[in-house]
Amino acid sequence: MSNETLRCIEGTRDYFGEDGNRYEKAFAAAANIFSRYGYEKISTPVFEKTELFARGIGEATDIVEKEMYTFKPSSESLTLRPEGTAGVVRAYLQHSMHKQAGLQKLWYGGPMFRRERPQKGRQRQFHQVGIEALGSSDPLLDAEVITMGLAFYASLGITGIKTRLNSIGCKECRPGYRETLKEAVKPLLPTLCKSCNSRYERNILRVLDCKHCADKTKDLPASYDNLCDCCNDHFEAVKQSMDASGTQYVIDASLVRGLDYYTQTVFEYTHSALGAQDAIGGGGRYDGLVEELGGPVTPAVGFAIGVERVMIAMEALSCCNCTAPLMVYGIGLGDAGHRAMAGLLARVRAAGMSADMDYEGRSMKAQMRAANRKNALLTLILGESELEKGIVVVKDMKEGGSQQEVPFDQFLETLRKLVPSGI
Ligand code: AMP
Fold first, then answer.
1. Could you tell me the pTM of the whole model?
2. Do residues 337 and 364 touch, judged by C-beta distance below 8 A?
3. 342-382 pLDDT, tens per residue?
4. Atom of ligand 1 at shortest distance to CA of 305?
5. Is the CB of residue 279 below 6 angstroms from any atom belonging to ligand 1?
6. 281: CA distance to ligand 1 center in Å?
7. I want to staple 376 with a disulfide (CB 3.0 to 4.6 A). Which of 21, 62, 368, 371 is the partner?
8. How far is CA 264 from CA 131, 172, 222, 256, 381, in A?
9. Where exactly are the structural domains of the chain?
């Protein structure tokens, strides 16, 4: 056996310390904000039948063509989920949520897997929090969803998010637009990159979002100028609703999103702190996906937010990543003091306060240093003489804080008075 230290796989990482706090905060903010808008949490498996993603995301997408982790433990081909929407829609149909009255608002969070070239903000195992609102074609819902994403970033203290917005039409008007675009792109093909040339036949809309060729493609016909009346009305209503709520956005004809299932509204959030991979989240309407996966025609809209990119922005903006402070640190001196302190702390925790102590037999001074390092609000000190008198010393760790001797049967009450409410 080699004694080389084992490392995690390239493109994956560990989350701990300050980064771990940011990671937890992002998930907590998702639960908080999304539930405020009426979304319920759904958790689906991290692996599904390959067919779900091939049909749901689209065969001609980068993800399905080359980025999926697919394995075949038996005759059935399985894939680690590269995104969350397909699994949520599968669950929505499997559990007949479409037969329940009204709109279903669901949110999810967890790891996603894509075999991409790792770089800053781009991993092979990354995390997303996202929402899906299934069962309504109301443009006000598109606007609410976009605003909710912004509320999520704001709740974490992330400022400077830009929202790009576009409409890519529906199955009525998109085929015509594709042809218009093909005509316009054809004479440019010799000057466009290899991947644009290969996308020309397979997925012409993606030519619009190629960063290498942006200069050459910026004057191509815009999808929003080629919408049918219904898509045009929808787009206007989304914009009006966002204007009415004061939500800032820019219309961007080059925004088409990488996945096949989008219809009408598409949007992306970007942040300048992220460098080349500046998309911090994105989504859109996907009125055809439920039907594509075997269900009835069901209009839907959703988004996914990249947790690692949220963490990068939080770090760049020095957003608070602090955890709640430790309420009580127990300093037990000598064997008897140590044991008795363990008993007192059990009562402190049972009373709903956080508590910790030393388990390494360190000196009083070293234990006091540990209490400071952990930002404890209070320390309890218990040595032989305190034990004999049946008291414990309660020390307020704020500068100039008081120190008092309290009988065992009253110490919890004293702690409650000293711990500020709201922690
Ligand atoms: P997508 O499902 O591709 O629309 O991605 C939604 C969001 O997930 C993006 O805006 C990114 O913030 C994040 N994301 C996508 N791919 C990756 C990746 N490989 N590594 C880290 N974050 C990612």
1. 0.91
2. no
3. 999 999 999 999 999 999 999 999 999 999 999 999 999 99
4. 7
5. yes
6. 7
7. 371
8. 18, 11, 13, 10, 65
9. 17-173+227-316, 328-417
